[in-house]
């Protein structure tokens, strides 16, 4: 992972092409550092067949040079060939070195065509986020490339320094050696003056500035940033601010501030596992080059172009894909784009209310139209804009204007307790079962998610009767007219990783749709419009593209966001069936869905989403997915479909944790692991989970547990919700990393025990 | 502008470097096209000192070859040097050719280092959105670059074809010519078979596919897209869908469908001026390479990283810049990021409500806290999420759940009528003036915006008395407790480009703040928290960074979006003063501002915003801005500040239009031109403006009026709001384009007259 040391200033040397003088100029830099009185290291790594091994080897070598905190040293890491020259593993230099995130000196090309290759190389570096501190090239008096490149790069904040080219090679080795030595003495004179020394000083100052900047960031952040969802009264110390210098794959590279692990280690960055998948958005690892290129591609072709009554390829192709091969398959006919899950849900709510009000138009006058309510589950969360909040019951995520509009069932839940799968019924439902038990042990997790089987069970009838009676009471009461059913299928994330019994959700849907449910067309809503809020779970967060396959039914409206753009930029899509769409069709502008955001369907977001879906298609049919699924496979007699519950987390690990005394329950589903700690004061204000697992965040000093790229020990950044600690993987987290995270979690829980 | 013809398949040939065989392989392609029986054009443009002249010359030449709709021809445009080799104007090839947006054959580099330069060149092309249809390179048996490049590009959907290299040059010219001829016959045999012919066929199929795709897009769009703010019942014909193939600067390149301007012109793309600045977002032209690179840079360094309790450079530096040198200067202490203007306003509203409720805590119990209202102006619009809508009165942009919470003044407005500046008073205010007149002619536009002067005028006292009395009535009545004042300063955009008398807004603010207004600290709210919704006008849409300088006062909370990211990706920022921030500070998590979106402060958005602000800094102090300002300068005696009203639109043009019979009024301010057409049925449903100006959209066939890059005539894409037609420029629209737009608008209005 990203390397940065207080007393070791490292620069990697990339060449704009082969034969541009990389070795000569690197030697000059090495000499200059030495003349300037620094101890200096030179490294020319050889590539090896795998990228991980390469990064680990280079990092380990660099680390061994960085153990002298008492003196300031320089290091130059010379890469091979041009920026995109292939390594033995098949990736190119730029991608192979990226995990180390070393600042760069780019050796420009001084020959004919060298302006082009220098700029193109620079842009390829930018696409990978590299810091380029200087451009260095030979002063070829014929082509004079430096004359063009100097102002070009000055405009981009990068100094260009040109140096006399070396003498022509002599056939006599002795003469050649002498001439070469003269050359070096000319460009790196002993008096320590000249262009090369200016470069050295500049690189030193870049290093110092970066350190100072990192050091100032916690204070400056505390002084100017207003964080989402954070009580700033709780985060007052600089050490509490997580300074993310860069990110790669599953890891942040974070500033360790004054928390240097040991006196002999002057490293100031450390890897940190992004254990919440950056608020559930991360799908294929941070800084994926394909996504960066997709963003650039659409930015370069369109910028943003306005969308109403218009069309462009990225939006159109994304819409078609989501409808035909995505979560909308089989029921959706239209895609409406917006910016985030919350706006996507506001759109969904507006769609549902209108569809309901239009069909019931005879009865619903102006006043009644305002008084429409939502049917949902307790613990729901659909985003923070006020309309999305109003679709949830009063709770902690609310504000002065919150007005809970609707009715919310207390749902049964699924969890693993002491190695057993348990369906926990709320008292009102438990009271209606034969034995009045609130906790029902089921055969297995996979059986619990086998809806077809369970629909025949007595519990299904209990659910049905309970729901029907409750809805009848609602109709008879003075509450609002219920106009839509909104569900977060399978799990209510923000509400506390509540895994709802899928049978309950399915029965609820069936009851709401009424007797015609079985025969209805999937493009026609019946009973109430049904919205699936799949912002969190959609697109394989739980290993499933959509919950529809598992629940055995489709919604009338659904919302996707988060993973949709692979964890890079915001975008949401609200899919709707034809019957919903038709409710807005008329000859009157006022009947239209008068909702839109300036950047609706912006090409960058749509293109990045498209690229993400391409990558997901490959990933979800990959060998590592097959292996992970295999582990959770149920024994033969218990046949379940391919879409069954499974997880990247090891079943054995999950069961072991679930048996710990201070663990109330556990769930693992797809990329999600949630651990509920026993705690008297549950709820949003609980700190017990946080207190228990705080230590996981800090780096674990054990080389044996070090699968972060670069071989360093790593901390885990994760989030808690009340007394639930949850961990999330991206869809391509390497199994070795998953195992390492499991080991740490287990070790901390065990210690506490 | 972008060139695409039905019967002329054009490819530009870019080289991954100089001397890679561009000319040889282009010749081979030309030969192959000829052997395959097509008429074929070869073009090797010379660069000229300005990019516009270059593009115009190339486009004009290409156009002259495209006048034979009866036969299918090929054209190859060979560029010079590598992709980034400089042109005479100083830009590089990639940027110089970009306006033409020709599909590309990239000639790969078959030499040592050629893998790197080929990939880097490809990525540089992607950053500018280019379509790369094929990679062609020599089959060098020693380096065998094609072996690496073929699968590499196959993964990216681009075929790689390798061709035997040419023979070595002979000293004898005759022998050389003969050998060369043999070489060409080998790689382009007369039998029409072999790799080069496969390339030709592939290029033909790419061309055909692109045409078919464009042709299918209208239908597919009508079948799958649900547009924002559009009554789909009104847009049923394929011809009504604006298919945007690409964009550059101020222009879309749109598909002209079956609307070919003349039988001899088989062009199928035409330039269209983006006259609404793509819903008011566009600031520095579409597809600006610096913004694409900024997006790529942040994507490559971070992807997205979660923000609560964390920090990264793009977000931190943007927050500091907005607070210290941006719209927050002098009053704001905190930046809260969200995704769009609407979410930014929801955040602002939550901030204001809490700040008010906290200070008035003694009196405000739970129920009262819900019953807080907003003070605003009729015609306000703050976005489409339901909370933002609830801050506006009932109107057309509403939905079932809309619940207008507050009171909205009918404001006086400013406009230019018959060449005179007029302040129009609503009846209730007019009744309070000495002469009861509703229309007050003022000295000039600049005087009208000179608040300091006008605060001493009798009208200021009329405003003050009226506002004070109204607020007192509100307090005495049964309405909600007013908890915040929300203003769109200077102009209410979505409400119909209503330019509010700035004196009224200033007096309203002063009255709301009460007697302590003059002495209050700018970081302490008094009376009510005051929100400036500067989503539309902020960051120079009106030529001013913020309205604060003109209104002579600062808000307690402000929201910026749209231009913030230069018209590329969504991002909003809510700035708040210290007193607002402190209302959420406590030791209890529940008191925090519990609002956030998954991609809050995503690095790509923040980095793009930063780059935009850099560019704006240069632009707003540029010569063209000085010249535009100069035109609107008032005569000496009438001294106004540097921040006075001015516009990119020519004052003479504005005055002439304002004097037309069927024009009710006009306003020009910064980049905005709004023309209100006389119409009985005003309001959102009005079509009169649209009907009148419909013809502006279509291409105007007059070469004399052709400043679009590429010299083609262009249409204007603009929007209407009721009976108002408005036109918007970006901040760097060339004066020649502004003049051309003015000429067209004038011509259409004149014709109608």
CATH superfamily of the largest domain in chain A: Type I PLP-dependent aspartate aminotransferase-like (Major domain)
Largest binding interface between chains: A-B, 162 and 163 residues
Number of domain modules of chain A: 3
The overall pLDDT of chain A, averaged over residues, is: 91
Rg of chain A to the nearest angstrom? Answer: 30 Å
What CATH first level of the largest domain in chain A would be assigned? Alpha Beta
Choose one word for the global shape of chain A: elongated
Number of strands of chain A: 27
Number of helices of chain A: 25
Task: List segments of chain A where confidence is low: pLDDT < 50 over at least 5 consecutive residues.
Answer: 701-705
Beta-strand share of residues of chain A: 15-25%
What does this structure look like?
Chains A, B: One of its GO terms (molecular function) is adenosylmethionine-8-amino-7-oxononanoate transaminase activity. 2 copies of one chain form a homodimer. Chain A is of the alpha/beta class. Chain A has 3 domains: 8-212, P-loop containing nucleotide triphosphate hydrolases (Rossmann fold, 3-Layer(aba) Sandwich), CATH 3.40.50.300; 304-330 and 338-409 and 470-618, Type I PLP-dependent aspartate aminotransferase-like (Major domain) (Aspartate Aminotransferase, domain 2, 3-Layer(aba) Sandwich); 647-752, Alpha-Beta Complex (Aspartate Aminotransferase, domain 1), CATH 3.90.1150. In chain A, 36% of the residues lie in helices and 18% in strands. A 7-stranded mixed sheet of chain A has the order 11-22-21-20-17-12-13, sandwiched between helices. Chain A has a 6-stranded parallel sheet with strand order 2-3-1-4-5-6, sandwiched between helices. In chain A, a hairpin with a 2-residue loop joins strand 23 and strand 24 (672-677). In chain A, helix 9 packs antiparallel against helix 21 (603-619), helix 17 (458-476) packs across helix 18 and helix 24 (688-697) crosses helix 25 (735-752). Chain A starts with 7 loop residues before the first strand and ends with a helix. Mean pLDDT of chain A is 91; it is low at 701-705.
